[in-house]
Amino acid sequence: MVPAATVPRLLGAGVWPRPLRPRPLQSATPGRARPGGRTLAGAATPAVSGPEDSADISDKILSEPLKHSDFFNVKELFSVRSLFDARVHLGHKAGCRHRFMEPYIFGSRLGQDIIDLEQTAAHLQLALNFTAHVAYRKGIILFVSRNRQFSHLIETTARNCGEYAHTRYFKGGLLTNAPLLLGPMVCLPDLIIFLHTLNNVFEPHVAVRDAAKMHIPTVGIVDTNCNPCLITYPIPGNDDSPPSIHLFCRLFQTTINRAKQKRRQMEALYRLQGPEGLGAGVQGSAASPSLGA
Amino acid sequence: MARSRLETVGSVFSRTRDLIRAGVLNEKPLWFDIYNAFPPLREPVFRRPRLRYGKAKAAIQDILYPEDRIRAKFYSAYGSGQKAFDLFNPNFKSTCQQFVEKYIELQKLGETDEEKLFVETGKALLAAGVILRRVGEARTQKEGSHVSWESEPTGVKPQTVLEKNQPLQEVPQDQHLETSEEQPKGLSPP
Fold first, then answer.
1. Annotated region Disordered: where (chain A) (predicted)?
2. Of A11, A259, B50, B81, which is the most exposed, with the fewest CB atoms less than 10 Å away?
C-alpha cells in the first residue's frame, strides 16, 4: 500500500452505487405517485424493493447531504483560536513569499509573514466539507506529501481512515500513464489531499499539475512559498511546524471517518424504512445532521 | 474516461462541465455535484507567476505595535534580556515584556517625559528583583575584572550569588555577576 498510489481493492470498480447518467437533483417533496406502475405510497411493503427503488434510494442518499450547507458539521472541529495555538499562522520569511499567496497574508512581523487565520478558517471549512462529501460518496482519497519529517504520520493517518497515502518518490507518469505503470484496470483517486505542496527541492509537486490534467480535484495546505493556483481547495497555513501538521492530519482523519459513519447510518436508515418511508426519513435525518464522532 | 489534459486553460470543473455538455464524457464524476453545490472561494484557474519590475512592491503591511518603541529602547540600553525565553510555557513573560508592562502602567499614571519613565521603570524592576544590566557598563566592567579574577577565591559558587534577593545597587551586583561568570570560563583554559 505504501509505495503504490492505488491498490488491487480498486480493481473491482463499478461496484459502488455511482449514478450511471447525469441525473438532476430530486425535489425535496417525495410521496407523489412515481411512474413505474407500483402501488401507491402507504400500501407498498418494505420487503418489495425492485431496481427502481434501490436507484431512488441511492439517489436520495447522495442528494440529501448537498442540500445542507454543513451536513457533517465540520465547523465544530476547529476554531481560529485552535489554529493559532497550533501555530498555523506562521509563514516563511518575506523573501520566500510567493506572489499569489499575498491575498492570504495578514502582514509581516519583523520579516516573517503571518497568514490571515480568518481566511484560513473559511478555506478550511470548505475543504473539510468537500472531503467529507467525497468520503460520503465512497470516493478514493489519496494523501500526498514529500516532507520526510511527517511521512510516517501521514501514512498512519491514511491507514486510520481507510484511505491511501503516497509519501515517497512520485514517479513521472503515475497519474497520467497509470494503466502502464500500475496495471490495466486501475481507478485513479477521486480526491488528492496535499499536506505539503512542494517537494524536497522546493518546487511544486508533480501531482498538483497531473491532478489538474486528469480532472482530479485537490485539497492542499499552501504555505507562503507555495503556488495555490492549480489547487481546487487551497488552505493557506503553516506546513512546517509539527503541531500544525498534527492538527491538519487529525482534522482530515476525523472528517473522513465521520463521513463514512454517516454514510453507513443513512444506508441503514433508508433500508429499514423502505420506499414509502423516504418522506419521513428525509425530515428525520434533516433534523439531526450532526453526530458525535 | 475522456479527459482534456490542458491544465493551463480553465479550471478542472469548467473543463469537465464542458465535456459533459458536448457529450464526450458520459458519466458525471463523483465530485461534480459536490463542487456545484459548494464551489471554492476562488476558481482554480492557472496563472503564470510574473515578477514585479521597477518600484512595484507587494501590498503587505508590517505588523508593528506601540509597545515596539519601548522594546527598541530597552534592547538598545540593556542588550538582550538576561533571562532565557521559555517558549514551552504559553504564559511566559520575558524581562522585556515585564519592562514594557511596567512602563505602560507608569505612563497611565500620568507621566509624560520618556527619559523619566524609562529610568522609573528600570528602578521599579530592580525593586521587584529583576536584574538589569546596561550594555555600555558591562563592557567596562569586563575589562576591569580581567585583571583581578585570579585573586578571587575559587570556592565561590555562582548559585550562591544569584540566590541573594537583597535589593543591591546596580554597580556592585554587576561586579559579583561578572566574577562569578568569569570563573567557570576561567577554569577551562589551560
1. 21-55
2. B50
